[in-house]
Write a structure and sequence with these properties.
Layout (H helix, E strand, L loop, with lengths): L14 E5 L2 H4 L14 H7 L7 E4 L1 H11 L5 E4 L19 H7 L3 E6 L6 H17 L4 E5 L12 H14 L3 E4 L5 H10 L4 E5 L6 H13 L4 E4 L1 H4 L4 H12 L5 H5 L4
Parallel strand pairs: 1-2, 1-8, 2-3, 3-4, 4-5, 5-6, 6-7, 7-8
Length: 264
């Protein structure tokens, strides 16, 4: 494993990934609630917040903007992804080589794996290639571990989420990005299943401030290392204040009530 203590991906053992791969994965509708976020520069500016340990983007966004932000933002290169226009069994195209991402200055690699999909075997082989290439560059690997497809009846079931984090360990990831399974007990199981792999929660769709911060706190209390979040930050008009709150909660170990004061 790559020691995260020596990587910009983590701070004091905790992780806050700001994700902005939604333009590819979800399409422009994700930007409608806060129209200025359609402009990537708006979200790059948000990513300069001290709470953000890395910024996850696809190849085109990185090539176009990272050279202007390399002194202020840690780049997490998301090397695969598929548009929401795709209607087949869950899969994710490899759009970026690790070598090219490393040449651009990436600090970490991100890769989606859909365990349970009919395409799982091919995706696992693609992950192997990316992971081994990342090792050659001493780059940590974050697995977006999302069980989906014909082999998965319920992708939020406790055992399925724990399996997702275990896949990250078995296949050689350094960080597992998983859905929150809905309870601290189930999250603790997922953390235990990951062994030494750091586990972070997927931020998911935008929710109200308290519910969101309570879910983050539950992850931390269960032994999780933080979160990877997009819409629950940049779909808010007060995105920087939300990052202030998350910094207080994750890195300063303040309570949910204390963190909420940053949003008042």
């Amino acid at each position: 494993m790559v020691p995260l203590a020596d990587s910009p991906l983590a701070r004091d053992g905790k992780i806050l990934i700001l994700a902005y791969d939604h333009g590819l994965e979800h399409g422009p509708t994700d930007f409608e609630s806060v129209p200025e976020t359609m402009d990537p520069e708006t979200v790059w500016d948000i990513a300069t917040h001290d709470a953000v340990t890395s910024f996850a983007v696809q190849k085109g966004i990185a090539e176009a903007y990272y050279p202007s932000y390399e002194d202020d933002v840690s780049l997490l290169a998301k090397v695969n992804g598929t548009s929401n226009l795709w209607m087949g069994e869950y899969d994710s195209a490899v759009n970026w080589t690790v070598d090219n991402a490393a040449d651009l200055g990436a600090d970490a690699i991100g890769f989606t794996l859909y365990g349970g999909s009919n395409n799982e075997v091919e995706m696992a082989e693609e992950f192997r290639d990316a992971q081994e290439s990342a090792r050659e560059h001493d780059l940590p690997v974050v697995m977006w571990s999302y069980p989906r497809g014909q082999g998965v009846k319920n992708d939020t079931k406790d055992g399925v989420i724990a399996y997702a984090s275990r896949l990250a360990l078995e296949l050689g990831a350094d960080v597992a990005k998983i859905k929150y399974p809905g309870s601290p007990e189930a999250m603790e199981w997922a953390v235990d299943a990951a062994g030494p792999v750091k586990v972070v929660m997927s931020g998911g769709s935008k929710t109200d401030d308290r519910s969101f911060l309570e879910s983050v706190d539950a992850v931390l209390q269960a032994g999780g290392s933080g979160l990877a979040v997009g819409r629950n930050v940049w779909q808010r008009e007060n995105s920087m204040a939300m990052l202030d709150a998350l910094e207080a909660l994750i890195f300063e170990e303040q309570s949910v009530d204390e963190a909420l004061t940053y949003l008042e």
